[in-house]
Write a structure and sequence with these properties.
Helix content is 82%, strand content 0%. The chain is mainly α. It is globular and about 50 Å long. The chain folds into 2 domains: 22-210, no CATH class; 225-422, no CATH class.
Length: 422
């Protein structure tokens, strides 16, 4: 399969429409991540960021990997009746998150953890909607679903701020309403389509999806559990510092998502002999861009973090490690897609767990000698993600996908650190 795209007027029109819609959505999301810490005090903001991590992880568990399975069933197996499947899994996940969150409130659990549980329902909607619009080719609206959770939380915080209630308790009630809304959206989708859900389709989706879910959750622990670890090892103020820098580093993810969203179907179906060269070229581009924004952040940090309560010097010191970590997340997302496509997720998961355990042991040893710093935690995550990517690349040899150039470009993910030191 050739990766070249012949240029036609219709394709140019679709491309311009996609870039305009996607750019507007991502611009609003980027503005939201800058606004949110200015609406909340550092402790409340740290609690919201913690909820964003726990919510994504919880929605992944409740979703049983069906979203990833639906993508493969549609693009590889030719299954056309995936809407009721996604509506059902969205409704189930959102309802379960809402009920567990409500139970936590009744049981007297802390508002911060109830907020985390309600967030599961919102993320269930985001995951199902994002997966659907991508593999069905509705790329012009994909950007609006990619950051549904952060946009919804920022809008909620803005309203609460106007009424003087922008705190953890207020955000918890807002998350409860949003989670209930996600249930309603799933029911409305199922009703509008009028399709029936076949038992065999569900069984097949779960059979394909649970290894994808397992591998995805393990990798999500690498890409989304930092706030939990930082909150445990350090303070919520450190969670806020990390989150502000991470949100600013999302410009890397936005650039990555523009390409992977616009070309999702073509990339997913990429022939095995082309994956290595495409991966290597994209790695070089992302690394170059990561180095550029690291240098720019060093200069512009006082302006970028103004009003967040974060010290610009601390932010400039931490950002290079976060940029390197984000770069490896992008590498991991690229490889994980092909691992799921080739049904190797179940074989990869134990290897990734072993990698995580090894780096957790290293972190434990370091913490016994001295208190772990925020930079040390980021570097441990970056190293673990790099090794997880390498393990997946090696496992893909079983599917006759052989990397050569990509092996050489993988270590370049640490280049933002060198750019900062230089």
């Amino acid at each position: 399969m050739r990766f070249a795209l012949p240029i036609t007027l219709a394709r140019m029109r679709r491309g311009i429409t996609f870039l305009a819609s996607f750019g507007l959505a991502k611009g609003l999301a980027f503005g939201a991540v800058l606004l949110l810490p200015r609406l909340l005090d550092p402790v409340s903001y740290g609690a919201v960021e913690l909820a964003l991590s726990v919510g994504l992880f919880g929605a992944g568990i409740l979703g049983l990997g069906v979203v990833g399975a639906a993508a493969r069933m549609h693009l590889v197996d030719g299954e056309r009746h995936t809407e009721p499947l996604l509506a059902a899994i969205c409704g189930w996940s959102a309802l379960a998150g809402f009920l567990i969150g409500a139970g936590a409130v009744v049981a007297g659990a802390g508002a911060a953890w109830a907020l985390c549980l309600f967030a599961c329902g919102l993320f269930a909607f985001q995951l199902a909607a994002t997966g659907y619009v991508r593999f069905r080719g509705h790329i012009h609206v994909a950007g609006w679903f990619d950051h549904a959770a952060i946009l919804a939380f920022t809008l909620s915080a803005s309203i609460l701020w106007l009424f003087g209630s922008a705190n953890v308790a207020g955000m918890t009630w807002a998350a409860a309403v949003l989670s209930a809304g996600a249930v309603g959206a799933a029911v409305a989708l199922a009703w509008s389509r009028g399709a029936t859900l076949e038992r065999d389709l569900v069984v097949r989706a779960i059979r394909i999806g649970w290894p994808i879910m397992l591998n995805g959750l393990i990798l999500s622990a690498l890409s989304g559990s930092q706030r939990i670890v930082i909150a445990k090892a350090l303070t919520l103020a450190d969670v806020a510092l990390f989150s502000v820098c991470l949100r600013l580093a999302t410009v890397l993810l936005i650039v990555h998502q523009v390409a992977t969203t616009g070309l999702f179907q073509r990339v997913y179906r990429l022939s095995k002999d082309r994956i290595d060269s495409v991966f290597a070229l994209w790695t070089i581009f992302i690394v170059t861009f990561a180095c550029a924004i690291t240098l720019a952040f060093h200069v512009a940090a006082p302006w970028l973090v103004h009003g967040t309560g974060v010290d610009p010097r601390d932010a400039a010191h931490v950002f290079p490690a976060i940029a390197a970590m984000t770069t490896f997340w992008i590498f991991s997302a690229n490889v994980e897609m092909f691992v799921g496509r080739e049904l190797l997720a179940g074989r990869v998961a134990p290897i990734v767990v072993a990698v995580m355990a090894a780096f957790a042991a290293i972190g434990g040893l370091v913490s016994h000698v001295d208190r772990l710093s925020l930079i040390a935690i980021c570097l441990l995550y970056a190293g673990a993600t790099a090794m997880a990517v390498l393990a997946q690349m090696i496992m893909l040899r079983r599917a006759d996908i052989r990397f050569r150039r990509a092996y050489a470009t993988l270590p370049l993910g640490f280049a933002p650190l060198l750019a900062y030191l230089a």
